[in-house]
Design a protein that fits this description.
The complex is a heterodimer of chains A (373) and B (530). Chain A has 373 residues and is an all-alpha fold. Chain A is 67% helix and 2% strand. In chain A, helix 2 crosses helix 11, helix 3 packs across helix 10 and helix 8 packs across helix 10. In chain B, strands 4-3-2-1-5 form a five-stranded antiparallel sheet. A two-stranded antiparallel ribbon of chain B has the order 6-7. The mean pLDDT of chain B is 82. The chains are: A mainly alpha (373), B alpha+beta (530).
Amino acid sequence: MRRMTLIAAFVIAALAILVPVLNLLVPASSPFHVPDYLVPLLGKYLCFAILALALDLAWGYCGILSLGHGAFFALGGYAMGMYLMRQIGARGVYANPVLPDFMVFLNWKELPWYWYGFDMFWFAALMVMVVPGLLAFVFGWFAFRSRVTGVYLSIITQALTYALLLAFFRNDMGFGGNNGLTDFKDILGFSIQAPATRAALFAATALVLATFLLLMLWVVGSRLGKVMVAVRDAESRTRFIGYRVEHVKLFAFTLSAVMAGIAGALYVPQVGIINPGEFSPANSIEIVIWTAVGGRGTLVGPIIGALTVNAGKTYFTGAFPDMWLLVLGALFVCVTLFMPKGIVGTVSDWMERLPRKPAADRPASAPAMEPAE
Amino acid sequence: MRRLILVFAILLLGASSAMADLRATVNALGKAKLDGLEQAVKAVAAEGGDASQRTLDALGEGNLYVRKSDGQVFIAKTDGEGLSLTDPVTGEAAGTAPKSDLSKIKINNALRRLLKAQAGGSALTSPDAGKRLSAAEAVFKSRDAASLPALEDALAKESDPAVKSALELARASALLASDRPEAEKLAAIGVLSATGSRDVLPALAAAAQGTGVVADAAARASASIETSLAYWNALQNVWYGISLGSVLLLAAIGLAITFGVMGVINMAHGEMVMLGAYTTFVVQEVIRNHAPGLFDASLLIALPLAFLVAALMGMLIERTVIRPLYGRPLETLLATWGVSLILQQGVRMIFGPTNREVGNPSWASGAFELGQLSITYNRLWLVLFSLAVFAALYLLLNKTWFGLQLRAVTQNRRMASAIGIRTPWVGALTFAVGSGIAGIAGVGLSQIDNVSPDLGQSYSIDSFMVVVFGGVGNLWGTLVAAMTLGVVNKLLEPFAGAVLGKILVLVFIILFIQKRPRGLFALKGRFVDA
């Protein structure tokens, strides 16, 4: 497992360099050229991969099935979106140097207090991490303290993201209402549509994914990681032994939320828009299927799952739009019934069954996953 | 014979001289300038009769013209290039004339109001009770003091009670606008405020202008009416809350039972509701095409069918998805979500993504008033229906052998199995019953909501909230939770708006869960989780 993860991190970091090179430096006629439209699409897939990895930390390793992770993703996205909106300045449709277009349209006279500071990148970057993290911390503190677990917790996270959906849809919340934030011009001074910027964003996403992969490897390999697995498999027993289960869960949940927020922040400049639809419960449940398809409780699995499912989605919604929801539904049913360990888990199960010569220095396999619920 | 002819001749002379008088008054309309027009109109109105009414109507509609050559007044209508004329006094056609020969008699708004009041005044004595009623209401709205004498005359002769009370109100409102003594005005205010209705507020507001005893009394009457209206409004919101609560009850009760017995949340529960609604649609389509007379019974036919369809689908899901995943509730959640996606898309592909029309049978249409409360029949039937379903379930759970087994399995599945209850069977049947109830909830919901593939989704989150709030395995918990959430939601709406109200309810539930993680009416007993 550890070796597989390290290889994966290396591959992704290599992609961070390879894809921009193939896009910018290789001429368009060559078969190795990566077309311009593909760069942000791949970047989007990698953002989803980060998101799936984040959920894997909470669910696969700590047993918290959060059906509202899309909320953290979207909150990070909105923070980045607000920075990008402030960057438009006087180039918007209404040419107001301070107020974004939608505020002028709503006849607002000045910037609301919660928009202050978003014209500075470092502040926006900070908010990308702080806002989802704070929400997760407060929510988790209340929830885990009261021992809300299992199905109840999942329903409550759904309610949370649904409430945020309703709130952000309102036009007078000051976040763009049902249109969301869009029409971005540039980021850090570079035009957002330029191929060079897109390649740079892709590279940044890939590097962040590789970094998070290594970070996760470190966390789950540590003692805290082992306690997390214990909480997942036998919560009461872990509590009786003396570990502070609430603190462990809170840590996992908050870290997962921060990672999801960063994924959202990288997603928005590549896609060019953030709207309240990202908060929808259906989106959050889709994240779970990415992780489940790839293999929860592994580190590489969610990445593979996110890439596969989203590639499938792009294909099906283009070729057979009616079929996509049927395929997705069938995927949910079949993966839970027949492939509970996901692609990576099933493959590694097969590989373990192959006859192998015993080797003393073979790295230990991942802890056997047996959901106790 | 000669006497007869004499009488006849005198009558004719009299009539023609009367007609001549009328003609002179009508022609005066053409001669008068705008200031004098009011006098002329009053003179014509004083003559009374059909001719005068005809003339005044035409004047009000802008169809009264005066011929420039001889000053005769005609009713004219555009006829191609020219105008076709009618004699106002006799009502007969009087040929055509080019437009340049005639000029329109113009009126202003004050004259228009006067004409309206006159029209109302004459209709007050019409033989048709309906016309008298609408005339009285027109005068009530116009608050014209000039129509007071006509009103008092009509009141004295009135026999129909409904028209009489309308006349009283009209008289009271006209009084307030007139110069009658204070005592009469105070009495009028009393008459108006006794109705307690919203319609008298403009009259009272007009009388409350300025200072004095009358103005004060009018202001006080206004204030007291507005307070009582506020109470009625709150009561109306409570009614809407009860109606919403009954809908939530229907949608959630199946889920609560299933969750209690099987320990799994069925994310496809909303789709069972949707299937029930679509069953109603199909039943109505078949009836519309083959047996239109049965339409009023369509709901009664749809009920057992919807139950069967949803129950069968529920059994299928239980066999194929739930049973293999027994003991893994989180994965069951995901798998049932997948099933819900498949069902939604399936229905979308068969019936199309747009709303389908499900009609109300005649006994569920319309509304009735209770004081200032307006209660629609379809909502009333839905409330009664959900209470009936609740009662039936209560009997099922508490008075039948199956119900006993169900409760035993809910409390402690292992123990129930150990004493010989066939828990897989109980689980399967419970799931079927729960889904079936969702199906009949769909029949009810089709009456008040749009029938579309997304119907299930909109009730999904709400059903979960009811179950989480009320606790599982307990019917009373679901009832209390559904009604509370419905009423709170609707009471918050006027203050915070529908969306913010919903958000507040969701936040409230999230916080409530902290205090009571297992819901309001939690099952007592020991639970072993791993």
